[in-house]
From TrEMBL:
It comes from Dactylosporangium darangshiense. InterPro entries: Fe-S_metab-assoc_dom. Residues 13-135 form the Fe-S metabolism associated domain. Signal peptide: none annotated. It comes from the Bacteria. Belongs to the SufE family. This is SufE family protein. It holds the Pfam family SufE.
Amino acid sequence: MEMPEKLALIVDEFASAPRDVVLEMLLEYSDAVRPLPAELEGHAGMEQVPECQTPFFLKADVTAKGTVELYFDCPPEAPTTRAFAGILAEGLEGATVDEVLAVPADIYQRMGLANAISPLRVRGGTAILQRLKNQVTAQR
C-alpha cells in the first residue's frame, strides 16, 4: 500500500520546489490547521508530542467506516510545527487506516525539508507522524 494520493502530491510538490519557495509553502500549510472542536478544547483526550520544541497535541480517531479523522493543536507562533500538522491534515483527509500506516517515516526527508529547516524540527515532525500512527494502530 502506498501513501494517499493527496499526500504523495504534496510530497512531490515540496521535493521539486526551490528552498525559498519551500519556506513559503510551509507557512501556507501552517494556516491550514483547522480549529479544534469544542470537545477537544483544553486538549482533552489529546496526546502531547514532547519531541516537539513547542506544545503540540494530536488526536487520531478511526471512524466506523475505517477512515481516520485527525485533530492537531499547536500555537500560531510555531509556524513550522503547525505546517507539519497542516500537511498531514490535508494529505490524509479521508484516508483509510492502511493508507495512514503506509506513510513512510522519512516523508519529511523525501519532501526535502532537511535542506530547508533544522534537523531538530524534522525530528519533531517525524515524532508527530509516529505518534499519529501509534494512535491509529491502537484503534485498529
